[in-house]
Each structure stands twice: as C-alpha cells, then as structure tokens.
Amino acid sequence: MYNTPMTKIVLGIESSCDETACALVTDDRQVLSSVVWSQYDEHCRFGGVVPEIAARAHLEKCDILIQEALNKAGKTFSDVDAIAVAGGPGLIGGVLVGVMTAKAIAFCRNLPFIAVNHLEGHSLTVRLSHDVQFPYLLLLTSGGHCQVLIVKGVGQYERLGGTIDDSAGEAFDKVAKMLDIGYPGGPNLEKRAALGNPKSYAFPIPMKGRPGCDFSFSGLKTAVRVAIEKKGSLTEQDKNDMCAAFQYAVVEEMKDRLKHAIAVFQERYPSAKDMVVAGGVAANQSVRKMIGTLADKNNLIFSAPPIALCTDNGVMIAWAGMERFRLGLTDSFDFKARPRWPLDTLSGGNK
Ligand code: KG4
Ligand code: ZN
Q1: I want to staple 169 with a disulfide (CB 3.0 to 4.6 A). Which of 50, 143, 192, 339 is the partner?
Q2: C-alpha 16 – ligand 1 centre gap (Å)
Q3: Domain 134-304: which topology?
Q4: Cα-based torsion angle of the residue sequence 285, 289, 290, 296 in order, rounded to the nearest 10 degrees
C-alpha cells in the first residue's frame, strides 16, 4: 500500500481480555492490517475466561501476531511511528504481556510509547470509521462495562451513568451459560433470540421509570434463572424464547436510560449532533437498531463502528493511539499496567 511521506503509522496491541490482537493504522484513517487471535478454544470448556490461561496464551501469541500484522501491511518496524498498547483496564496478566512487549519494541526502536485505556479504544474507534465530531453521546457496552458518557475530546469523558451491578455483556454471558447455549454468550444468545418470541416471558426491565442514567442487569439475570428453574427441563424453543425475552428486556433497559442521557446531553450541548454505541455488545443488531431509532427521534445522527471493530481488536488501540500521538500525548516507560482504570479519570498523558 502506498503512503505519502507525511502519513504516520501507529502499531496497536490489544491483550487485556481473551483476544490477542495487533493492527497498523494511518493518520488518514486507513487500516493497513488487523489480526485478531481469539482464545475461544482455550476458554470454551470452562464456559468463561480463565485469567491465567489467558495470560499464557497472550504470551505465546503476542509477538507472532505483531509480525503477522507487519507482514500483512507490507511494513517493517522502520515504517512505524509509534507503538500503542492497551494499558488497562483488564486482566492484569494479559495487560502486562502487551505493555511489556510494547515497551520493549518502543525502547529498542526508539519509538514513542502510548498506553491506551482499553475503554478509550472502544470510545474513539467510531472516528476511524465515521465522521463523528466531539462532543458525542456514547453508550459503551462491553463484557466488563456498561456506561453512558459524553465524549468531549481525546482523554475527556464525562460519565452520565453506569451499571450499578453487572455489565450488559456479563448478563448476556451469564444467561447464555445458564441456558447452556455455549461460549461466547452474546453472539450465541443473539442468534437464538432471532428464533424466539420476545413476549413469551415478561422479564423485568430493572431501572425503567427511575430518574438518572444508571443501568442494572443483575435482577434481570436472576429473573431468567428463576424462570429456568420453574420450567424444569427446557426444549430448544424454550431456550430461544428466553433468549428473545431477555434480549428484549436488555434493549428496553438501555432505551429507557438513554432517553434520560439524551435529555442531559442536548441540554448541555444543544448543537451537538452525534450519538454512538461501542464495545462488544454494540455488535448486537437489536441494540444498534434501538439506538438508531432513538437517535432519529431526537434529531441525532447514529453511528457505530463496523461489527468487527465492536468486539476487542487491535485497530481500536492503534486508532486511539493515533488520536493521542497526533496531540503529542505519549507516555513514559514508567507507565504501570492498570487492572482498573476508569475512563473519566483520563486527561492529558497517562501518568
Ligand atoms: O468489548 P468486548 O469484546 O470485550 C470487553 O471489553 O469486555 O465485549 C465482549 C462482550 C461479551 O460479553 C460478549 O458476550 C458481548 O460483548 N457480545 C455481544 C455480542 N457480541 C459480543 N453481546 C450481545 N450480542 C452480540 N452480538
Ligand atoms: Zn473491550
């Protein structure tokens, strides 16, 4: 691929959960390569991610994937202008593998090192795929998080609300486990839901009608468990129906909360135009459709990253790294991998 001499390239590494991923992106929004190695086979028989197994798998694959990403892009380290890595939040063993690898490359090649907050990666990816300007309203919904934020700029996030218990992705995964429909839970549950009747069970919509923008999914998950126990043995159709009714309740919960968030956002920023969903659960078509409709009704433009960039990937880290790099927001080698790292504590450099 041809690059003008001015084009900058950032290599991004993601290893904070159960995907090892690496990508190269340019400052003019080209994805030169993206490789994702999912640890599905490693964790499948446990029905969820086992942190120690994840860390070892990242260690085994990280440098192989980096080389693969460079090869696919037809580049070498000499073509790269900066190294970005997910520095947290996440499973600390995996984050450490990525951070140490990135630091080693940056040190040896004398390149800038950028520690990207994984959530910032999810939050900014839409600016690679769409013309979305700051400030925008964002529903960030993944396996570890569910929050609604105003994205005011790189490193500038105002949290309007978040989950008070489970994240939406966690609820999808736990319900999928209860129904024994396989791991990864979210995508399997969505497929099943398409074959079921959402009205067959009246699951609660936990925060509906309450003020504010907080979410809750734990009671909904418990309601599904109670329904499973009450039924005794489940047919495949029962499972499909429960998936459909559960997904319907999740979407309704999100809709109710987002209505409040839109009101706050539009009051604060009357001329802002954009509303975005990001994170693994943003791959869900019912979630995307609901937010699209809600945005339309409120004269907002709905955008979401392409499905492949919703679940964890290297592009989101490379792109957030690029956004930081072009503002001069690089990090020192003192940066410490962070298992917890709330998005609304970010500002300037990640010291
Ligand atoms: O962003 P992500 O890849 O990892 C984290 O940062 O947590 O999100 C993974 C989460 C998992 O809980 C997974 O079940 C959920 O996203 N997910 C989905 C779908 N695809 C992934 N949930 C609902 N529907 C989907 N299609
Ligand atoms: Zn993620």
Answers
A1: 143
A2: 14
A3: Nucleotidyltransferase; domain 5 (3.30.420)
A4: 160
CA of 142 to the centre of ligand 1 (A): 5
Q: Is 143 in the pocket of ligand 1 (CB under 6 A)?
A: yes
Written in H, E and C, the secondary structure of 51-87 is HHHHHHHHHHHHHHHHHHHHHHHCCCHHHCCEEEEEE
Question: Measured from the CA of 169, which atom of ligand 1 is nearest?
Answer: 12
Please list the pLDDT of the chain residue by residue as tens digits (351 residues).
555 557 999 999 999 998 999 999 999 999 999 999 998 888 888 877 899 999 999 999 999 999 999 999 999 999 999 999 999 999 999 999 999 999 999 999 999 999 999 999 999 999 999 999 999 999 999 999 999 999 999 999 999 999 999 999 999 999 999 999 987 899 999 999 999 999 999 999 999 999 999 999 999 999 999 999 999 999 999 999 999 999 999 999 999 999 999 999 999 999 999 999 999 999 999 999 999 999 999 999 999 999 999 999 999 999 999 999 999 999 999 999 999 999 987 754 443
CA dihedral 64, 70, 71, 76 (to 10 degrees): -120
9-125+309-345 and 134-304: identical CATH topology: yes
Architecture (CATH level 2) of domain 9-125+309-345: 2-Layer Sandwich (3.30)
279 lines ligand 1 (CB under 6 A): yes
